[in-house]
Amino acid sequence: MKNHTLWLSSGLSQILFVALLPVWLRLLNYLHPVVLAVVWMCLTVFVFFVVYFIRKQTIHVSKNIIKIIMITYSIGLLILLFMRPANQNYSQINYIPFKTIIGFLTGNGNFLVAFYNITANILLFVPFGIAALMLSKNPSRLRLMIGPTVAIALIEITQHLTKRGSMDIDDLILNLFGVFIGYWLHPLIEKVFKVR
Fold this sequence. Notes:
By secondary structure, the protein is mainly alpha-helical. The chain is built from nine helices and four strands. The chain is globular, with a radius of gyration of 18 Å.
């Protein structure tokens, strides 16, 4: 039965990835090609979770495997954040909370870019919240708040200094929201992914 679930999860995730390939390929106009690997990784893990959750089965994973997955994921994310097409302007700075978000929600600019910016800034950081709780035993609330805030702020500042991205308080807000969603989802994720 577990073998069947493994094959079902693998097959469904790859079919879904290929079916949505036209959408993923449009992202290549704005992002580094590694976006395909990051999307594939996220989609595969998501489908595995859904299939195993529905079938009430579990996957046992060691902390070392989680660390390797998160290091690989982090490298992919850093490439996405710092290796963008050179034909874009990265000189803007936004210190006004929700200014960029409201601009996207009111229809300013390309829909795909707006959708990607809001959803990706949230969803791409959800795994960090989940992994933080999977890898730590009883971390303090202060550590769970300060750690991601400092890390994301450093990314924003570095993007600005290297001219590889715009420094935007809304990116910080959306990224943190993603991490906090990961914290909130952790108990649900633990029903499928059991840490050894």
